[in-house]
Every structure is written in C-alpha cells, then in structure tokens.
Amino acid sequence: MADRKAELEKKRKKLEELKKAREQKKIEAKDKVISPVKDPSEGASEREDISQLVDRLIGGDTTQTATPATLSPQASKPSATIAKTTTTPTIATSKQRKLKLVVDQLAPVNIRPREVELYAKQTQTEVSSYEGEGTGSEDEDTEERAEPSYREVLGKTGETKEQESQPLPVVEFTAEQVERIVSSDNFVSFVDRTSRLVERALSGPSDILFDYITGNSVENGDSPSSRRVVKKKVFLDERWTQNRAVNAMDWSGHHPELLLVSYYTNPNIPHDPDGVALMWDLKFQKDSPDYVFNCQSPVMSVAFSKFHPNYVIGGTYSGQIVLWDTRSGKRTPIQRSPLSSSAHTHPVYCLDVVGSQNAHNLISVSTNGKLCSWNLDMLSQPQESLELTNKQTKPVAATCLSFPSNDVNKFIVGSEECSIYQGQRHGSKPGISLQFDGHWGPITSISSHRAAGQVDFSHLFLSSSFDWSMKLWSSKLLNEQQMTNKTGYPLCSFDNNSEYVYDVQWSPVHPSVFASADGAGKLDFWDINADTEVPIVSESVESSLVKLCWSPTGHHLAAGDLSGGVHIYEAGEGFCSPHPDEWTKLQQTLLEFQENQEMTAITP
Questions:
Q1: Rounded CA gap, 469 and 463, in Å?
Q2: What is the CATH number of the domain that holds 475?
Q3: What sign results for the dihedral spanned by CA atoms 541, 543, 547, 551?
Q4: Which of 470, 478, 476 is nearest to 446 (CA)?
Q5: What is the pLDDT of residues 516-548, one digit of tens each?
C-alpha cells in the first residue's frame, strides 16, 4: 500500500509540473502575439508584405484578399488571430513551386443545334408562283422560294404517300349501271372464279392458285390455257435412282399423293441390292423417298394393294412375287412366293389387284405365258394358275396386262410376238379367246378405258409398240368377219412418233384424252375428239421416257425415264374436267373410225 501511495504521489507532482509548464508556455505565446501599439506606417508595411504574399499565391489578384488588411491597428484579439492565420502559409508556400498562368488565344466555335423535321398532316399544294408579285415583303418571297428546295429534300415519295392517304371519292351508280355491271361477262366470270377460290381455300390447306386456277372457268375448258401442262417436280435420289431405269409405277388409291416406283439394277454398283422400289410423297415436296424397299432380284412391276393401304407388291425378274409392309419398318419383303413349277419361274412384267374388299386377288403374268392368282395373306402357292397359249399353241410371252373397268374375269395381254390377246380367267373356255393383230413390233403397253360417264367405253383399249405407233382397239365393235376369224383390227392408228413408243395411258377422268411416251423423251397429250393426227400438247425431256402413270384424279401424270428420274406433270382443267358432252362426241368419233375401217377393208 505504501508503494502504491508513493507512486500516486509522483504522478500528482508530475501533473502539477506539466500544468505549470503549459501555463508558462501560454503566457509566453501571448507576449509574442500581443505586441505594443505600433506606428501606422509600420502597419502599412506589414499589410504590403501580406499583399505580396497573396499575389504570389493567386497570381496577382488582390482585390479580395486585401479586405482583411483594412482593419484598424487598434484591433484587439480577433485582429491578431487573422494576422496569425495569414502569416502562417508564408513558411509552407515558400518551398512550393510557383504557378505560372498564361492567357492563350480563344477560338470561337459555333455549334449548330440539331434540326428536327416536323411534318404536318395537311395537303401539299403547288405554289402558283415562286417569284412573288410584289404584294408581300422580302421575307415572304424568301420563304416561298425556299419551298421548292424543301420538296427536293422530301422527294416525290412523300407527296405520293400523302396523296394515297387521301380517301378515294365515292362514286354512286344508278340502278341501270349496276344492272349492266352485274350482268356483264367479266363480272360473272370474276365472281365465278373467286368463289371457287374461296371454296377451295375453306376446304383445306392446298396450293389452290397453282393447282386449279388457269385464268378460265371450268366451263371454258376448250381454251388453250386450260389445256396446258406444267412440270411440277422431278423425283431423283443420288443414292438409289442413279443409273437405274424406271421399270413400273403406281399411285396409291388410299393416299393420292403417294407414288410407288420400281427401278432396274445399277450396273456400276454391284454391291447394292438388285431390286429397288421407292415410295415418293408429292404432298410435302420432299427430295427424298418416304420408304425404300429392297430385294435380291430386280423389281419389274409394282402395285399398291387397293384394299390394304400398307401393302406394297412387286413382281421380280426371277419370277418371285414379293410383299412389303410399311408397318414392319424393314426394307426387305415380309413374304415371297416360291421359285417352283407351281409358281412363276420367268420374269413378271405385269400384275394387278382385282376384286372387291371382301373378295380380291392378285393377278400376275410371266413371260412364259403363265397367269397366277394369289391371296395376299399367303404367297406360298397360287390359288389358281392358267397357261396362256396362242392359236399355234405356243406360250404367250406376256409383256403387259390390263383388266377392263369393273371386270375381274376378262383381261388383255400384250406379247413379244407383236400380237394382243383377250382372255378370261373363268368360264367354259378359260384362256385366250381373241387375238388382235396390227402391230409390227413387240407390244410395250396396254391401257383399258377407265373414265366413267354417261356411256360405257370399257371395251376400248390402247396399245403401244416398238413399231413407233399407238393403236386404238375395241373388243366389242367387231364385224362378222372378225368375229368368225376371232381376230380384231385397230380402229385407229396414231403414227406421229419417230422412236419406240414405250407407254400409252388413258386418262382416268377424261373419255377422249390419253398420254404417250417414246424413246426420244417426248411426252404427248392426245384428245381424239379434237384431233387424231397430232397431239394437242407436247413436252420433252433429255432422257428416254419409258413409263407413264396417271394419278387417280387425273390432275397429275408421272413419267419415268431411263436415267432414273420421275417427272411429275400437272394437267390443266381442260384435261381433268371434261364437258358432259365429251362422251357423246367420243361416240361420234368411234362411228367415224368404224366407217373408215370398213372403207379400208373394201378398198383392194
């Protein structure tokens, strides 16, 4: 405790000493600051020193800093404080760098304000005179003369838009004028054409302008524009169609936009499958096929099943009948016929599905004259078979087959020996019953009349041959001599081609229209009611055309060539919308053909 008290006592003494030293310093400082009253001249000199110091600091401007120096010399403590604060910077600024301020030349810059163009919604009219007539002041003349330059900046576009924005004047017609306009041919044609456009647009999404509008109504189908033909697309695939000739084609009856095409072997690629069949879709304008089907032998003929929308049937060069199913997801067939004596052992160039939904069969004919009837659910063996022989009891080397419309018993086949045969599958004498002679080369195609209408023309059929001609035949219009000899002759011959005629096909909707294709790449559209000497429309391609196939509606025609291309043509309304009197005209045409045939037979 004693040490603690001693320590506290020392600290107290030390604090007292510090207080005394502090008070002593304060007294000395007061003695230095508070000086005795001096002479006014001495105060003036001190003020001059202060002014010089301020001039060095601010560059010579002492108008404001000299104000504190005007205080009287008798100023007490506040004056002394000001003097102290003024003299203190002298020591600090004496060591600082002196600032040298120089006044440079000033260049005036005129910045123009941004111009904002304003437009008023009013009619712009031309000024009658830009030079003035002396009635206005000079300022008014200047404004009028400046107006053309303003128009030059705007240009004529602004004036045109302003003029277009103005409402058109309303013209009132009298009752006579309205009646005259409504009854005019142009107005009636316009309403008829536009109403059909609206109806087609409301029926569903389709290219109504391209498909049907030809600038004429349906009733004016004889005009040249309604008989035009337009190439719409070419189906080609570098992988599957290159260097492969088209063998056969068929349109789907369930989906009219689907086209089935079979191709021959590509000799340049031996490792690819020999048999190729592609399914093309016209609806979506695709450049690749929807389905690809393969088999070991070249597919010489193809067909859609009329009663099974997913079945695709093919006849091969080896004689097998193959069946693909689009639901299987496989390119290979799901069924094959056997290579045996009970079935085909020669190439099958023609096949067709005939019958009804509940009773239908696949009919195929091979080049050895064997006709087979198949059930699509079982291709292990044919249900029926028939040997086709001619008058000399030689097998008929069939190259093409056609069934008349709505007939599943009678059939017509073309052969390599330049003759056409009519036969029947059932009856007292099944087989060949009638022979048609007139060609001088192998028969390349047979097409039965298919257009249904007021008159039944199912007895008519067309043929094409390597003799550069096409011929029209009838299995019904035969004279007594022909019936006795069981030999028919053509009603008319069309000899306009200069190359092999590979195919001819009746239109499915027009009774007198058919199309033909030859080795020169020429595609002809004929109308025998209009002309029997020359076609009404002709198109051409670079490669030889070998196969034709009309769509079920008659609006499109597919033409296959030797290079693997399939050309899709769109026919005008004159081809696919016949007049009701076309059937009557065809009757008159057939009568003329018969008269000419009789006159030819009588002439020695």
A1: 9
A2: 2.130.10.10
A3: negative
A4: 470
A5: 999 999 999 999 999 999 999 999 999 999 999
Q: Is 257 helix (H, G, I), strand (E, B) or coil?
A: coil
Q: How far apart are CA 83 and CA 77, in angstroms?
A: 10
Q: Count H helices and E strands in the chain, helices first.
A: 10, 29
Task: Provide the CB-side half-sphere exposure for 278 (13 A, CA).
Answer: 27
> What is the C-alpha separation between 103 and 137, in angstroms, rounded?
48
Where do the H-state alpha helices sit in 287-430?
none
* Structural domain contains residue 92: no
In three state form, how does the secondary structure of 310-346 look? CEEEEEECCCCEEEEECCCCCCCCCEECCCCCCCCCC
Q: What residue numbers bound the domain in which 430 lies?
A: 221-602
Collapsed DSSP state (helix, strand, coil) of residue 528? coil
**186 contacts: CB under 8 Å, gap ≥ 6:** none
Report the alpha-carbon distance of residue 600 to residue 604 in Å, rounded: 8
Q: What residues pair up with 354 in beta bridges, in sequence order?
A: 361
How far apart CA 450 and CA 508 sit, in angstroms, is 5
Asked whether the beta carbons of 350 and 363 are under 8 A apart, the reply is no
SS3 501: strand
Q: Given a cut of 90, is residue 92 above it in pLDDT?
A: no
Specify which residues 417 forms β-bridges with: none
For residue 248, being part of any structural domain is answered with yes
The pTM of this model reads: 0.62
User: Angle at CA 302, nearest 5°, toward 297 and 305?
Assistant: 130
Q: Tell me how long the chain is.
A: 604
Residue 335 lies in a domain: yes
Smallest CA-to-CA distance from 349 within 337, 338, 335, 363 is with 363
User: Could you give phi then psi for residue 396, rounded to 5 degrees?
Assistant: -85, 115
Identify whether 141 is part of a domain.
no
The two structure tokens encoding residue 190: 């316009």
Complete DSSP assignment for 449-480: ----SSS--TTEEEEEETTS-EEEEESS---H
Phi, psi of 140 (to 5 degrees): -65, -40
Antiparallel, parallel or unpaired: β 487-488 and 431-436: parallel
Count how many domains the chain has.
Answer: 1
User: Longest C-alpha distance within the chain, in Å?
Assistant: 174
Q: What pLDDT, in 10s, does the model give residues 38-80?
A: 555 555 566 667 777 767 666 544 444 444 444 444 444 444 4
